[in-house]
Structures are given as C-alpha cells and as structure tokens.
Amino acid sequence: MGIRQIRENRSFAPMIVVLAVLVAAAGLTLRCGAEETGVQLVEYASYEGGRAYKTGDGAYWVLNLNGAWRAMGRQYGGLVGDELRRFLAEITDDIARRGMPVSSQQEFADSWTGTLCENLKELLGGLAETSGLNQDEVSRLDAGIVMLSTVALGGAPPSACSAIAAWDGYTPNGALVFGRNWDIDRQALLPYMKYLSVVVFNPDSGNAFANVHPLGDVYLETGMNELGLFIELNNGAYSDPGYMEERENTTSLLATALNESSTLEEASSYLVQTPADLAYIIQIADAEECVSAERATFSARVRRGDQEGVLAAYNSFVPPYPEDWAGKVTDPRPEDLDPRYRNLIRLANSDRFRGKLDVESMKELLDIGVYDGGAVHPGTVYQVIALPEQLTLWVRALDFAGWQQVNLRDLFGRR
Q1: Angle 162-164-169 from CA coordinates, rounded to 5°
Q2: What was the pLDDT predicted at 155?
Q3: Sheet holding 310-313, edge to edge
Q4: Which whole number is the average pLDDT over 399-407?
Q5: Predicted local confidence at residue 37, as pLDDT
Q6: Cis peptide before 320 (omega within 30 of 0)
Q7: Rounded CA separation 205/242 (Å)
Q8: Section 251-264 average pLDDT
Q9: Which residues does 302 contact at the CB level (< 8 Å), separation at least 6?
Q10: For 180, which of 90, 165, 224, 359 is 20 to 30 Å away at the CA?
C-alpha cells in the first residue's frame, strides 16, 4: 500500500485498495481453471463490448474491458454505474464523518488524479461519460480508499502489507507461487469489500493486464499481465518518509509496467530507473523467480532473496543497504515489534511448508497470524495468491468471503 503525507491544506494521503462483491444473475459462464473443476464466472452484464461477471459465490466482481482507454472507461461505467454511485456515496460520507470534508476530499482527489498517467486519465474520462458520475466524482471515487485509509490511520505511515514468493525447491514442481497481504485497517475497510474486483484491461496496444482493487480504483497495487508478470506494492515510508510531489504516482507506473513490460528484467529496470514519488517496496515475479525493487525517493535498487527460491517483503527496506544509502534510510523496527519478515522466511523454511508451497499450502500460510509466527494481523484487509505460470489469481477479503479463483487466461485477449 502506498501513503502520501499531505501538507496542511492538501489534506490527507494516498494509499490502497480493497474488495468487491454482489450477487449474481444468470447467464453465460466462463470456466476458470484446470485445477479446480466447476470454478466459473457468471456473466452479469455487457456494455459496448465489455462484460461484467461475478465469481461463483457472487462475492467479487470481475470486469473484462476492451479497446482504447476511453472506450474501456465507458464500458466500466456502463457495466457497474449503479455500484460506483453507491460506493461513492458511502465512502464520501464515511470520510467526512472522520473529519475530512467533501471540499478537502475533492482537493485531494484533483491532486491525486493529476499524478496519474494519460492512459488512466483517459480511463477515468470514459467512466465519467457512462457511470452517472461527473469528472470530479469519478476522481473522488478513485482516491476514496486512499483518503479513507489515511484518515483511519490518523495520517501515520502504515505498518502494512507483506508478501512472500516461493519457487524452485520451495514448491512441489518448481513453479512460482506468490502470496500477498493487503493491509491497512480491516474494520474501517470491511464495509467496502463488497466492491472488491478483478478488472481485466485488453487495450489496443501493449499487454493485457488485470488490476485487483475495489471498483472505481484505477491505480494499481496488485496485478498480473498476459505474459505472467505479477506485481504488488508495499508502503516503504518507514524507511524513507520523503515525498517528491512533481513525480508520477508509483501506482500509475505499475499499470504502465504491466502494460509495456514483457519480462521481469524489463519491469524491474523500468521501476528502478524511474524516480520515485514516495518510498515503496515493489515485488515483481514471473513463473520462475521474484525480485524486490526497493524504491527510495533518492535512489533505487533490485534486491534478491538471501536464499534461492524464496523472497519475502514487508514495509522496510531489507539490510544490508548500498553504501550511498548510509544515513538516509531508517533501519527496520526490531523483530519483537515487527516480526513479519522473519516469520515469513521461517515459515517457508519449515518442515511444514518447504518444498510443499502450492496454492493450498499458501492459503494455509496466509492464515497464520503474526503472533502465531505468520504475518496476518488486524489490519489485513484482503489477500491475493498468484500463480503466474497458469495466469491465475485467488482472492479473499477477510471477514467477508472466502477464496475465489479467477483464471485470467480466459479473460486476456477477449478483444
């Protein structure tokens, strides 16, 4: 997750994501996965070449959008306009009750939208044409989870989000499996889990990719492209609290990375060479390995795990640091205060999990609480498991609904 500290009258800060729902209508079904028979999506609506589905349990939305970015925005708004309007009304009132008036919300949203790439701005423009929301309202919805997360945390940087990737000798067949915790404040964000979605973009140019977020949130913090490149982002403000206002929003860069990068090397190089607005720890994985791009506001590097076949990440850059980072980075909290990184590495190397980390074992690992040697805590809102080799995601919003599988192979390229 990401957070932006805003000056007095810029109010509050950027961040995250969450989860979506509703129940199904009948119609066309889309089978999702060779491993689990009977897993399917139920078609809910179609509009101008786009389609909306629900997962088999009716818990999460899946959208399939095609064409130019503005056209995909029009499809998005036409498919789920009722939900977007309801979501905006609910979250606007919630944020206002927590002390951020609508005028300040709009001021922040305008600033937030200004940091996005042109493709995402075009997407929002299309949304405003068909959703029943105007341009200001669409921008406010896109920034809504970010603003709610900021006021819920009282402006403090989150100790939130963690991830673990396993491959080679840590998995039964050597193929990579990735587990991701998206953390902020579960109690504050739980009411919006009914909007959690997997939105698949099949643009006219570049790679198709999926974005896991609540409906209307077009910036990217968790996603996968059609070539099996998976990316997720953790806040790094504890290591480096700086903010470079003139730089592009990192969550916008991630969308570009998935759209334009064909390999792990291309994506990691792009993210390391592009100056950061805020500090983030970004994990980039394919079917064979995972690296971590630690992006400070003054520099960046690619970090590999200490052991071949496993990499864990949380909200601090992992020592040792490059020599020129000396005096610029805050060391991680002591392990007795934040044991998540240590816990994830220990679990991966335990007899229970080493060599056995497939999707089902990863689900077990992601169930383990931080005080029981895992990484889940009261701030954990939703979780994602990715299997890049199979172009498959599993999504779960805690205290809302169980795991649901989404086979992206069936959705990519449906132009």
Answers
A1: 170
A2: 63
A3: 310-313, 162-166, 177-183, 380-387, 392-397, 404-407
A4: 97
A5: 31
A6: yes
A7: 34
A8: 97
A9: 268, 272, 291, 292, 293, 294
A10: 90
Helical packing angle, 144-153 and 69-97, nearest 10°: 30
CB burial class (10 A; 0-12, 13-18, 19+) of residue 270? middle
Instruction: State the chain's mean pLDDT as an integer.
Output: 90
Burial 191-216 (b: 16+ CB within 10 A, else e): ebbbbbbbbbbbbeebbbbbbbbbbb
Q: Are 43 and 28 in contact (CB under 8 A)?
A: yes
Locate 329 and state its tokens: 């980075």
Q: Which helix (H) or strand (E) holds 284?
A: strand 280-285
Q: Which of 17-21, 40-44, 261-265, 397-401 has the lowest mean pLDDT?
A: 17-21
Give SS3 for 392: strand
Q: What's the token pair of residue 401?
A: 């609904």
Closest residue by Cα to residue 213 from 227, 233, 229, 228: 233
Place of tokens 């964000």: 189
Distance separating alpha carbons of residues 378 and 163, to the nearest angstrom: 16
Query: Which are the contacts of 272, defined by CB distance < 8 A and separation ≥ 6?
Result: 293, 295, 300, 301, 302
Total Cβ atoms within 10 A of residue 334 = 8
Read off the pLDDT band of 156 (50, 70, 90).
low
Determine the Cα–Cα distance for residues 333 and 318; give it in Å rounded to an integer: 11
Q: What confidence score (pLDDT) does residue 57 get?
A: 86
DSSP states along 125-192: HHHHHHSS--HHHHHHHHTHHHHHHHHHHTTPPP---EEEEE-GGGSSSS--EEEEEEES-HHHHGGG
User: Token pair of 214, please?
Assistant: 């609540």
